[in-house]
Amino acid sequence: MDIVLLGPACRPTTEARAGTAPRQLAQALRRRGHTVLLLERAASGACAEGRPDVASYQDLADLHARFHSRVRRADLVLVDAEVSQVSDVSRWATNAAGGLTVFWDRDTPRTLARHALREDPGCLTPALLAGYRLYLCSSGGPVPRQLEREWGVPRARVFPPGVDAEHFAPGGGRTRWDLGHLGPLPPERRGLLKQWLLGAARGWPEGRFVLAGALSAVDDTWPANVARQAAPSLQEHVGFLGAQRFTLALSQAEHTPGASLFEAAACGAALICDAWPGLEDVFSLGEEVMVARTERDVLHALRAMPEADRRQLGIRARARVLSEHTVAHRAMQLEQYASEAERGAAWLAPVRSLS
Predict the structure, then answer these.
(1) Pure H helices in the chain
(2) What is the C-alpha separation between 230 and 234, in angstroms, rounded?
(3) Which of 114, 141, 316, 330 is a good FRET partner for 206, with 20 to 30 A between their CA atoms?
(4) Rounded to an integer, what distance in angstroms lies between the CA atom of residue 94 and that of residue 101?
(5) d(CA 160, CA 257)
(6) From CA 208, how far away is CA 263, in angstroms rounded?
């Protein structure tokens, strides 16, 4: 396919540019033989890269003037929900595109909450979303059907985060902590983080705990055995996760996994998760991830699980990611959903292999 992907603003750092989900998906699609032009809103301090498959634009007028014909002839135009002026870009893209139009929402609960009141003239509306032929949402369960019934989306399909398998791999570092968590986390989920991580730390004074990148989630009453640090860089993620016996991976919202769940699993981390509907569709409960419902469950896993069982938990979780949840699998899934939308066919099963 000839694909145009409109992503969020490019940033000046090499790490940020290389690590964005749109860039990773674009690269995975290219590896499968597709032609992909990634368009990014120019950010302050960002430099033009001089690449034929990545281009930046200044504003909507610049986007129209330089790329209208390219969008018109593309087989598929994908708009990331994080683009600047998403409603204006959506209106322009769905009117300009001659092929299949796709909306990619990597945080559906936040998108729906942000646009539900429709008080801001820049908000998405059912009329705008109805202009897309396919909506890729981060949430499963009843959310896709809700998008179709209440928001007028013609076709909504689950599209979880995909992992860059080349970057996230088990490390061989020294274990420093018994349990850790790496943010970000929505404000409505931070109470659970405080209850479980800090509660477990208070219940086990001899244990070692770490919280990174989510320091606003808690108050100043810190147990002495909880380390605090800034979010590690992309290159430091593997080492940070490898230094934990267990990793606390909380959902972003009901039916909605966060990208950190798949990244930690790809690193072979032993995961403790909250029991959200749909978790059983992405990981085998008790075999690939441990499920907790209270801080006592967290403490029990930390103190009672044999080391051999803990290691196997991480090994099996990584194997599941490599077989179903890489960026390459998401590229295949997009191909299948696009084919389904073009044919008007019934729902297709999730991608489970690269064969």
Answers:
(1) 14-19, 21-31, 60-73, 86-96, 108-116, 126-129, 143-150, 190-193, 199-203, 237-242, 259-266, 279-282, 295-304, 307-324, 327-343
(2) 12
(3) 316
(4) 6
(5) 7
(6) 22
Q: Which residues of 124-152 are buried (b: 16+ CB within 10 A; e: fewer)?
A: bbeebbebbbbbbbbbbeebbebbbeebe
Choose among 93, 150, 90: nearest CA to 124.
90
What are 65-105's pLDDT values in tens digits?
A: 999 999 999 999 999 999 999 999 999 999 999 999 999 99
Q: How far apart are CA 40 and CA 83, in angstroms?
A: 8
Side chain identity at 181, as an amino acid letter? Answer: H
Q: Distance between CA 250 and CA 273 in Å, rounded?
A: 6
Closest alpha carbon to 153 in 181, 125, 182: 125
Q: What is the pLDDT of residues 249-298, one digit of tens each?
A: 999 888 889 888 999 999 999 999 999 888 998 999 999 999 999 999 99
Sequence letter at residue 342: E
Write out the H or E segment, with its range, that includes residue 122.
Answer: none
pTM of the entire predicted model: 0.88
Nearest CA among 157, 87, 175, 114 for reference residue 337 = 157
**What is the number of alpha carbons within 13 Å of residue 44 lying toward its C-beta?**
0
Per residue in 128-153, pLDDT (tens digit) is 999 999 999 999 989 999 999 999 99
Q: What pLDDT, on a 0 to 100 scale, did the predictor assign at position 174?
A: 84
C-alpha Rg value of the chain to the nearest Å: 21
Q: What span, in angstroms and rounded, lies between the C-alpha atoms of 235 and 168?
A: 9
In the DSSP assignment, the letter for residue 326 is B
What is the torsional sign of CA 185, 143, 138, 241? positive
For residue 14, what pLDDT is reported?
42
Whether the pLDDT of residue 350 is over 70: the answer is no
Spatial contact of 38 and 70, defined as CB atoms under 8 Å apart: no
What size, in residues, is the chain? 355
